[in-house]
Design goal:
The chain has 4 domains: about 5-95, Uridine Diphospho-n-acetylenolpyruvylglucosamine Reductase, domain 2, CATH 3.30.43; about 100-215, Uridine Diphospho-n-acetylenolpyruvylglucosamine Reductase, domain 3 (2-Layer Sandwich), CATH 3.30.465; about 220-325, Alpha-Beta Plaits (2-Layer Sandwich); about 330-405, 2-Layer Sandwich (Alpha-Beta Plaits). It has 17 helices and 18 strands. It has helices at about 5-15, 25-30, 50-65, 115-125, 140-145, 155, 160, 190-195, 230-240, 255-265, 280-300, 310-320, 325-330, 350-360, 390-405, 425-430, 435-445; strands at about 20, 45, 70, 90, 100, 105-110, 130, 165-170, 175, 205-210, 215, 220-225, 250, 275-280, 305, 335-340, 365-370, 375-385. The longest helix is centred in the C-terminal third of the chain and has 20 residues, at about 390-405.
Length: about 475
Amino acid sequence: MEQVTTTLLDELREIVGERVSDSKPILEQHGRDESHHPVVPPDLVVFANSTEEVSAVVQACAKHHMPIVPFGAGTSVEGHISALKGGVCIDCSPMHEILEVNIEDMNVTVQAGVTRQQLNTYLRDTGLFFPVDPGAEASIGGMAATRASGTNAVRYGTMRDNVVSLKVVLSDGEVIQTGRRVRKSSAGYDLTHLFVGSEGTLGIITEVTLRLHGIPEVISSAVCAFPSVEDAVNTVIQTIQCGISVARCELLDAMTIDAVNRYDKLDYKVAPTLFLEFHGSAAMVEEQSQLVRELASDNGGSEFLWAIDTEERNKLWHARHMTYYAGLALRPGSRGFSTDVCVPISRLAECVSETKKDMDSSTLIGCMLGHVGDGNFHTLILVDPENREELDEADRLNNLIVRRALKMGGTCTGEHGVGFGKIPYMEEEHGEALKAMRRVKAAFDPDNIMNPGKIFTYPTASS
């Protein structure tokens, strides 16, 4: 662990006053995310209120060659916030101002600490909403940094599709704006989308300009049970191939449904199940839902259970969003080892089916769920983080799942990001392109102080 010098500590206090902490509980809170990875705390936590403060803190850290780890809400699942080299954690959660809403242009600029629910609550009376919904109450800055996705991605896209521009603090403290508020531009390198998904390794995102969407006239949600996971996935594939524009299309296997029923006191049939949502005009929603009902019926699906009013829909999607915690409740005291592969839609049924066989043959309990409308699914493997044998078995399962996805032309992570948990697969997935990524890192962060140890291995300045 790097040691924070008295000189640096004094400099940081000059910048942010008493908003610097070396309290053990605070450090541990900022060294643990929602994953199975062990706590790796920083040496100090700085709570920043503005881009100017972040810039000044980064300048001070750069002068002392001190590692920096950005922090949003701590909801990541790949160890993104683990301070692998110690150093200073910059917590951007106090930066929660909504700076500018442009209703006519359908965009909004927010500070990095604004959460998605906070933003949509603020926008409620404008007729607009921000659609990217990873489930967790994540910060917008963190969602941009990890290229987050979620239940609405099949229709509205991921953070990559909904970020217009960023304000970023670079490794020397310089502040840059990566683009303008316009819908398109061909002026120079696309720096915005270089930083989206960079996981804090190139700079710290402090402001985000987002694309907004109109709230649909009609929103209807439905639940449909199937005889098997394959039947459910085949329905999804046929739906996408028919060009039906579903807004949400989520798969929960039987174990996940059982967990949800227990956790939220619901009574869904314990079977592989699709949670669906349709957006649009009344006629459009009726047409879409009728077509999907026919496809589902052909694959053995049950009658749709509808959730039309807001309260019913919120209850349904709350159950879906709480699947992580519902799964953990099946084994109290466990931690979640989450996989996150994404494959071409044509290989989805095969990949899900083979993964289901892997899980059924394992000694560990695991739930399967995912945003199957865009080929992305997860297994939540429940492990005792102190049990080496269980961790090894979870690693074995993860290896099988990831390498199968890669062979099918897929990716090791569809939305969670790399952190340090997925580093072993980066060379296999990217090949020679990984060398180009390292050159980009060297150009933006030559001393490797920005969230070191994430995305890929990279030599430190002292090595």
